[in-house]
Amino acid sequence: MKTFAMGGVHPHDNKISTEAVIEQMPLPEKVVVLMNQHLGAPATPVVAKGDKVKVGQLIGEAQAFMCANVHSPVSGTVTKIDTCKDPFGLAKPAIYIDVEGDEWMESIDRTPDIKRECNLEPKEIVAKLKEMGIVGLGGATFPAHIKYSVPDGKKAEYLIINAVECEPYLTSDHRVMLEHAEEICIGISILRKALGVPCAYIGIENNKPEPIRVMREMAAKFQGIEVVPLKLKYPQGAEKQLINAVTGRKVPSGKLPIDVGCVVSNVGTTFAVYEAIQKNKPLIENILTVTGKKLPSQHNYQVRIGITYNDIIKHSIGELPENTGKVISGGPMMGKAVCNLDAPTTKGASSVLVFDESEACRNTETNCIRCGKCMNACPMGLEPYLFSSLVKNGRFEEAGKNNILDCIECGCCFFSCPANKPLTDEIRLGKNKYRGILAAKQKR
Amino acid sequence: MTTQILLAVAVLGILGIVFAVVLYFVAQKFKVVEDPLIDEIAEVLPGANCGGCGKAGCRALAEAFVKQGNMEGLKCPAGGNAVMEKVAALLGQTAEASEPQVAVVRCAACFTGERRQVRYDGLKDCSFAGSLYMGENGCAFGCLGLGNCAAACQFDALSMDPVTGAPLVDEEKCTACGACVKACPRGIIELRNKGRKNRRVYVNCVNKEKGAMARKTCDNACIGCGKCAKVCPKEAIKIENNLAYVDYTVCIACGKCVNECPTGAMVAENFTPVKPKPAEELNAPKATITESVAPMAEKVELNNNLPHTN
Question: Counting Cβ atoms within 10 Å, is residue A19 exposed (0-12), middle (13-18) or buried (19+)?
Fold first, then answer.
């Protein structure tokens, strides 16, 4: 069975919410829609206070190059256009909407029928992806229309669908594959057409035997879609590692996947693509896992964007257990702890993971014993212990020369460190500082 | 046996002489001529290599002084006027006296009790924490309390208050080198003129949120109400982005604004506290107060519960 060549670790996968069928999260009274739900510049609001909006109506328009449209997830009245604190307490531009009923735009097809035919030209597909505000749902929220506009002089050879879900605990992709296999395959065919590639591979780790079986059966009915089971290893879901695992190619330092002829798309994104292209439904919902070992129940929800973390917790488990240590958005390896539960969820939110005190706290840091475990664990072949000491001494340029920017912040080094050194934190700091130095140099 | 020893001594001795001659000529050939003035100036400078002057260290500054020949644009902020006079004497110039300054932490941060909203256990570095989230006390503008400033201080003048967790400036030790100003990722620390009798008035907040939001975040926040600007006799206070700023070059430290501030964000440092007056004195003519040395200052209350008052 295939896997990527270098580094990696084996955290316990803790997929305890795989049996929970995707439920629909009820609408709250109010939602707050952040204007930067994606990588890049925030969208510009195109509604005013007092406007009536419908579900799926455009409320934030992408005006910059690196930007995505934002649509209203509910119907109701716009009450305020202001800033709102995001899950990390930082103020971001947002639109406040009071929910009234659930009236959808007429153009959106809400029937459960599956629409299989797609007659759009590749360029039209990309334009529609842009219009519908599709972003990558794997975590980076990269605007899809940019990813599928292959730059001149480059050619995509493979479309790789990322159904690895290597982060422990998360099961949203797992459930989507079980419940919407056909839609996903139609979405893949659409993306394949947009890129003009002959073959698409779906990479799934072997801890998900059921989705592998379901997707294999479904893929057999479609042309040019192949399921590739992968050996369990974190971070297989990282773009460069997945390319290496599936095709054996290596993305060189500082290059993009398209430079080796690959385009990687998350399986959740393909479902969103299907809904956008075939059903005219903009990206206003995503699938989110509510999980945690100490929680009374495990859930997978289809959640409209703009619903707050508190609403989700209230609906799913009532209230947080008393000794809750952390609420994490995303997986335990790369996710970020949410410090403002009144904040709304965004397009990229994939989970609400609740850890109690004992699971959440870090162990005491001790001195580096030069065991080299971090080096063996690093999937990018970097030297985390070296960055640690360079960053501590403020030698950011030297860290840059040692390719600190190649770090994908997967957390393998921190996970493997027997001295509990916050290596990933230090590398992130070093990356920020080195990017600052590069930007200053460019200005000059 | 003896001949062997003598032979060894002779060989080594001759080799020594040969190398000495070679080294002598090499030293003559590659001699570096350095102005002795550089050493003299470097001797006068504090020698902390704090980088406050913008040079790589004290010796680099001394070299710059000698290269330039005058004192224009070069200054040792850590040494202050005393050192600059000595340097001027060595260079045969006159030093322009500048106002002594001190680092001021413009945030009433407190990381204990009710103010603390979340607990952070990541890397103890302000610029890293600041790129992740708001901060332990919920303010996205204020102090993060992880001590980058204290680590940057070469003069032991900045320390983290063990009770509140906020930075504390020791006025006596602070040389206004500016290392902490550069180290703070949120730009809270500012160098301000020490002022007459060390009396300073400043806004102890950098929160640019709208009034209600700022107040929700912190009891001490400046809400940009503008009351201080209205009472200021010198127009030293500007309100920008919901935040007041006292221009220390204009401020006369009269202290009127401090009494006006509804949130306590305006701070008067080193003012004598008002003693509670007996009832009959309140009715006394005001003339008695104006006769005192610093009339307005008498009215100012010292805000003792703030972390920065020394």
Answer: exposed
